[in-house]
Design goal:
Structural class: alpha/beta
CATH class: Alpha Beta
CATH topology: Collagenase (Catalytic Domain)
Strand order of the largest sheet: 1-2-4-3
CATH architecture: 3-Layer(aba) Sandwich
Radius of gyration: 15 Å
Strand content: 15-25%
Shape: globular
CATH superfamily: Metalloproteases ("zincins"), catalytic domain
Largest sheet: 4 strands, mixed
Helix content: 40-55%
Number of helices: 5
Distance between the termini: 18 Å
């Protein structure tokens, strides 16, 4: 199940966002809960500086509750948290010719893919991210 926290108190489509993300989790057989936190650029910039040493805003940050490669750790009910800057999402939506909702869904899919243990150090490694992003946009279009 997805819990969405809107730290900006500005997001108008929480129900749609939650519905699409829950459908995606169900389809992918992800049984753990996920928290999506919608924030602004200053907030995500502070996280980016604290955790990655980069003093700049970013679009999405993922924080898994456990490392998927570590089989010695038991599975827990909460997969992790995904922070999305709606400021950066709005800017990127224009560049990508998407609605802000579509961009936020794309970023959520990206963050969820990281929570599932994937990373993208090479062009080939981007494949699961592109699949997830395309699938989530299709689910949104099916509503």
């Amino acid at each position: 199940m997805v819990e969405i926290i809107d730290e900006t108190n500005k997001w108008p489509d929480l129900e749609v966002l939650e519905s699409v993300l829950n459908r995606y989790l169900f389809e992918q057989s992800i049984e753990q809960d996920v928290t999506i936190i919608l924030c602004d650029d200053p907030f995500i910039q502070s996280l980016n500086l604290e955790h990655r040493g980069l003093d700049e805003p970013t679009d999405v940050l993922s924080y898994p509750m456990h490392e998927p490669d570590d089989v010695s750790m038991p599975m827990i009910a909460h997969l992790g948290d995904v922070f999305i800057s709606i400021d950066t999402a709005a800017d990127q939506a224009k560049e990508h010719k998407l609605s802000v909702l579509q961009e936020v869904l794309t970023l959520a899919a990206h963050g969820l893919t990281h929570l599932r243990g994937f990373d993208h150090p090479t062009e080939e490694a981007w494949h699961p991210f592109h699949e997830a992003q395309n699938r989530i946009l299709k689910l949104h279009g099916d509503l």
